[in-house]
TrEMBL record:
A GO biological process held by the record: pyrimidine nucleobase metabolic process
Pfam family, one: Hydrolase
Protein name per Swiss-Prot or TrEMBL: Pyrimidine 5'-nucleotidase
InterPro entries for this protein: HAD-like_sf, HAD-SF_hydro_IA, HAD_sf, Pyr-5-nucltdase, SSM1_domain
Coiled coil ranges: none
Domain of life: Eukaryota
GO molecular-function term, one example from the UniProt record: nucleotidase activity
């Protein structure tokens, strides 16, 4: 019996010794393997990236891209405009959303109706009268200052507001709204046909004027063409500072209202040399209307120069319906 116990004890000691030896061997081997793992940084880096970085789906949810930020800001701005975007104001059927086609902008005064109507002469007289009465100037001085402000700012009212704190809405009531347009303008079938011949599937058609909205609305209504335009961008006398052509901000305003982002998608016709020159400088394509009887500028204002609006058929043929249709 004693011999059996001794044999068992001897066997246990032997097994413990072998186990201890195996553990020492494992530890030694693990120590030798550690440097081998450490010299594989590329594999380790990939593992860290794959574990630490969230999926593309999660990234898109957590952090919007720059394009999304711009689009969100642009959309919010468009939504804020929606309440005032009607033909009674700065209107666009796109409500400021990006347009899917080019835009053709028409000036109003001395563009949709001819200079021979003498509306410009009547307006100039009312402006001179306003200068004389409100600034206590002689008639000659009023005429001189009116011309100076028009030359420097594009609008006489801009100079009055900037230098004399004149209420622009009062000015509008005494000048633009005081014009006897009902006695001068009548429906123009030829002009209406021109506008109807424009293919609206190819281009949007809008009004772009330095006048206040009430004046622009009166003119197109009396001409019988108020239904031919998708929107109106005007000089808003209720906003300070005033923004008008040829200031770049006015052209950007028109683009925003029309929902067009690229200047090369903007086409324009205006009787003003400065306005057409500025439009071309800003990347628009412009047709300068110089009526028959007026001197032709030595240096063209813009890409095109026309004598009559009907010539737009040749200047912008891509926007008109084909003869077969």
């Amino acid at each position: 019996m004693t011999s059996v116990l001794c044999a068992s004890a001897t066997t246990s000691v032997f097994m413990i010794t072998r186990l201890s030896s195996s553990l020492r061997t494992f530890t030694s081997t693990r120590t030798r393997l550690t440097p081998t793992l450490a010299i594989r940084p590329q594999t380790t880096s990939r593992l860290i990236t794959s574990v630490a970085a969230p999926s593309k789906t999660l990234q898109s949810k957590r952090r919007p891209t720059a394009d999304r930020i711009v689009l969100t800001a642009y959309t919010n701005q468009a939504l804020n405009k929606r309440a005032t975007s009607t033909m009674t104001g700065d209107q666009s059927q796109t409500n400021g959303a990006p347009a899917s086609k080019p835009v053709l902008f028409f000036d109003i005064d001395n563009c949709l109706y001819p200079r021979k109507s003498q509306i410009q002469d009547l307006m100039a007289e009312l402006i001179d009268k306003f200068f004389s009465n409100h600034l206590s100037l002689s008639w000659d001085d009023a005429v001189k200052l009116h011309k100076e402000y028009y030359t420097n700012y594009g609008l006489a009212i801009e100079g009055l507001v900037r230098h004399h704190e004149i209420d622009p809405l009062e000015y509008n009531s005494k000048v633009d709204d005081a014009l006897p347009l009902e006695d001068i303008l009548t429906p123009d079938p030829e002009l209406r046909q021109l506008l109807q011949d424009i293919d609206r599937s190819k281009v949007s058609v809008r009004l772009f004027t330095n006048a206040y909205k009430t004046h622009g609305q009166r003119v197109v209504k009396l001409l019988g063409i108020e239904d031919q335009f998708e929107g109106l961008t005007f000089c808003d006398y209720a906003e300070q500072p005033l923004t008008c052509k040829p200031a770049k901000a006015m052209y950007l305003k028109a683009m925003q209202h029309a929902g067009v982002e690229r200047p090369e998608d903007c086409y324009f016709v205006d009787d003003s040399y400065q306005n057409c020159k500025a439009a071309q400088e800003y990347g628009w394509t412009a047709a300068h209307l110089v009526e028959e009887g007026l001197p032709v500028p030595r240096t063209p204002a813009s890409q095109y120069q026309i004598r009559h609006l009907q010539e737009l058929r040749n200047v912008y043929p891509q926007f008109f319906k084909s003869a077969s249709s």
